[in-house]
Each structure stands twice: as C-alpha cells, then as structure tokens.
Amino acid sequence: MSPSELPPPESVEKILIWHQGALGDLLLAGPALLAIRRHYPRAGIIAVGHPERWGLLAPALSLEAVWDSAGARWSPLFTLDSPLPAQLKERLAAFQLALVFSPRPHPILSARLAQAGIPAVAWLPSWPGSGQEPVGSFLAGHLARLGISVPPEPFRLVIADEWQEQALQVSGPGPFLAVAPGSGHPCKNWPLPHYYEVARELAWQHKLRVIWLAGPAEEPILPYLRGMAVAQDHLLLAGLPLTAVAAALARCRLYLGGDTGLTHLAAAASVPGVLALFGPTDPLVWAPRGDGVRVLRGPCPQAPCAAPREITCPEPECMQELAPASVLEAAAELLARG
Question: Cys bridge to 319: 23, 86, 193, 279, which one at CB 3.0-4.6 A?
Fold first, then answer.
C-alpha cells in the first residue's frame, strides 16, 4: 500500500489493528501504535490479539475494545475454502482501515479482510527479518512509507487506577528493586544464584526492598523463589495479571532482568532504572529504549548469535560468564543517576 492509498484521517471512523505477538513484541510496537492513534485522533480503534497484553496498552491508545484473536470466529479469515460467514462480515463491515502486524505476510488474511468490506488493508512486519535495525526504527520506516510519522520518543504506559488496586502487595517502605529471573528461553536467563547474589547485595547497600517477579515460565523455580523471599524478607509476585505487574513496576526504583517481556514492561512503566542482561539475542534490535535503560552483554565473542530470534547454542556461555560484579556496578550507576 502506498501513502496515496492510505485513507485520510477524516474518512476513517474505525480501525482494526491485528497483532498477536508476545508481550515484548507488542510493547516494541508501542511507538508505532501511538503514532497511528495520533494520526487518526477521532477514529475508534479495536485491537485483535492477546487480550491481557493488549489490555496494558488500552489506556494509552484509547482503545475502543480488544478482541481475542484465539476465538474460533476468526478461522474463516485464514482459508479461501468457503464464503465468509455473514456474521463475521457484519462484524468487520464498520471498519475503514485494517493494519495487520505479523512476522510474515498473510495474503489470505489481507484478502479476506478486504472481502469483508474493509476498503484499506495494510500489512506491517513485526520485526526485521535480518540486519541490526532496532524494531522501533524498523516499524517507523514502514509507517513513514504509509504516510504516518513516528516520533522517536519511547512508549509509556498509562497506569490505570484499578491496576494500582491490583498491586496492593507493593506497599510500605521502599525504594523497591524488581527482579525478573526468567524468560521464554532458558538460554536467555542469567544464572539464578547470580540474581540472588546481586539482589541481596543491592538490598543491603542501597536499602532497597526486593520484589521477585514470576510468571508461567518460572513455575519450576517457584519453590526456590518462595523460600528465598521468606528467608530474606523479599516480596514474591507470582501469577499476577500483567496490569498488576505494571502497577507494581511503576512503584520501583530499579529493575533487573533479561531479554524478556517484563523488561520491556518495566521500561514502559517508567521505572527510572532498567538494567537488561542480554546474551544470544541482539540488544541493538530487541532491547527496550529509554534514557533509564542500560544494557549489559555477556563476554562471549560469538554473542549475539540468534538469527534473528532462533537460539541454537547448546550452552549460554554468554550469560554464564556475565559477572555479578559488573551487574552490581551498572546497577549502582543507575541508582546514582536518580
């Protein structure tokens, strides 16, 4: 789609944005999504994807609704075997523009959205297939070709009042240090004993209260985290809604974690200091942006080795050889800036 084909703001009343990506991918798209909202200030926007993840962006983007992409109602959009159901066509008929974010083109999906009566359908790649361009800049370039300018500012969440009520565990004396020891891939994880050593030292040196963050990926280490939290008088937030985690992060002074969606969430929640530990994946492409973000990389000469997101190394030496002393020094510098 060329810029001349993109509907002008005055002709668009409703926009459908399709993005089924992981938490980090969606937050990396935040500046692009905000630029779309600003370009179409009067349009109602409905997002299709993972409801909990999109719910984080709903206040900042003034979303009209979020639809779950996992619903069976969408399956006819991915096949040409039969006519579109009338109910689905009716559901989509109100939109003048559909923007589909995905790693690869979905020509059938785009064609079916057009068949449903949406006049303008554009595909946007979720991330660069190769090279070392940051995801945010990559998306900004694609939107610029569609006539939408993306400011270079980092994306920031709007923390809703009800989210604050979900995070009442994070109260009392601070400042707080949030630690997220897991990720979606074990090769991206810094050794847990290193996290414990650094968290304990930071708590003692800088009078921080430690909050351990755990989601489904950390289920195997939950017993260890629970015992550690009790022994050290730390907080453990496990299995909370992402909105509650965002509100908890917004109360923190420092965050420590790897290449994971929670690291992007910490940056978007405006944590003053975000220390991100990277190994096999390229921080130039995948790290969150912001003045308070500091990236540390393991000393392995082969890192980053993921191309672009496939991690093939059997042992994450890059993460294992990242010294706790280096992480402590970087954390102290971030705290000093505050």
Answer: 279
Query: To 5 degrees, how large is the angle CA 164–CA 273–CA 291?
Result: 110
Q: What is the pLDDT of residues 127-157, one digit of tens each?
A: 998 778 999 999 999 999 999 999 989 999 9
Q: pTM (2 decimals)?
A: 0.95
44-49 vs 65-68, strand pairing mode: parallel
If you ran DSSP here, which 8-state letter would residue 251 be given?
A: T
Cα 95 to chain center, whole Å? 26
308 pLDDT band, cuts 50/70/90, is low
State the alpha helices, DSSP H only, in the chain.
Answer: 23-28, 30-39, 51-61, 86-92, 107-115, 135-145, 161-166, 192-206, 222-232, 242-249, 261-268, 283-286, 317-320, 324-337
Tell me how far apart the terminal alpha carbons of the chain are, to the nearest angstrom: 45
Domains and CATH numbers, the chain: 3-145 (3.40.50), 162-337 (3.40.50.2000)
Lowest mean pLDDT among 109-113, 166-170, 312-316, 320-324: 312-316
* Whether 154 contacts 290, CB under 8 Å: yes
CB 156 within 8 A of CB 60: yes
C-alpha–C-alpha distance, residues 115 and 86, integer Å: 11
Q: Which residues, in sequence order, are bridge partners of residue 255?
A: 178, 274
Per residue in 229-248, pLDDT tens?
A: 999 999 999 999 999 999 99
C-alpha to C-alpha distance for 296 and 333, rounded to whole angstroms: 13
Residues 244, 50: Cα–Cα separation, whole Å: 17
C-beta separation of 95 from 118 below 8 A: yes
